[in-house]
Every structure is written in C-alpha cells, then in structure tokens.
User: Fold this.
Amino acid sequence: MKHVLKLFSLLVVISALWIGLLQASIIPRSHTWLLPIYFIVSLGCYGLLMVGVGLMRFPTCPREALLLQKDIAEAKDFLKQKGVDVGSD
Amino acid sequence: MELADRAVGFLLSITSLSIFTYYTFWVIILPFVDSDNFIHNYFLPQEYAILIPVCAGVALLCLLCIFIGLVLLKSKKKKA
Assistant:
C-alpha cells in the first residue's frame, strides 16, 4: 500500500508542476502541452535502455557452469546406484 | 551464447537512443526552426508526434487486456 501512495504523491506533484508551468507561461504554450507525452516516451526509452545495458553486461560464470555440470553427473550416478530413476540422459 | 545476448542488448540500446533523439528533435527543437529549412523534410508533420505515441500506448493496453483475458479463460477451462 505504501508504494502505491508514494507513486500517487509523485504523480500529484508532477501534475501540479505542469499546471503551474501552464499558468506561468515561461515556456511557449505548444511546448507545455506536449511535455507529458514527451516525458512518458522518454521514460519508456530509458527503461528500454536499461534492459539493453543489463543484457550487455550480464555475467555468465563459465567455471561455475562446469562445476555445476560435474555435480549433476555425480548426483545422477549416485542416485542410479541407489536405484532411483533419473530419467533421460 | 553470450555474443547473441550482447548483440540483442546492443541493438535494444541503439534503438532506444535513436528513438529518444528523434523524438526530442521532433518535439522540442523543430518548432524553433524556420519552416522552409531543409531539415523539415526528414520529420513527419507535428500532429504525428502526438498520434504515434498515443496509438502505441492504446495498442499496448489492448494487447495487455487480451493477454490477461486469454490467461483467465484458459485457467477457467482447466478448472471446469
């Protein structure tokens, strides 16, 4: 519940800022009308960028993968000896 | 396999950066340029700057609702 309240208050603050900008008319009118859409598009772009950067820097740990494969083989042997059905090989 | 991952991540970041710069140019910089400059040939008329994100957002919402509906229907069918 608290997270929703935080988000809601953030939304209220941003809309208050936008209405204030509309009234004060520091920026030309046409720009102020386009600002919310611009921010939503840039937020989507930022999310996409973070996903792309995270994909590029994803660590693969090849040594741990090898050790894991060895552990799996060992466990399969052990269980087969004890008579448990370990499925397809 | 990490090369494929890296390539997809790189493509995604390049796409997002290009969309961001194109949209920034379109909405913020273009109104200040004279209307007979050559750069206007590369950008669609200004109404599309609002239409395209709104249409994309509406399409996304529709897809989400359809997906949720399908999942609910499938789970109901399995129970019955």
Remarks:
- The mean pLDDT of chain A is 85.
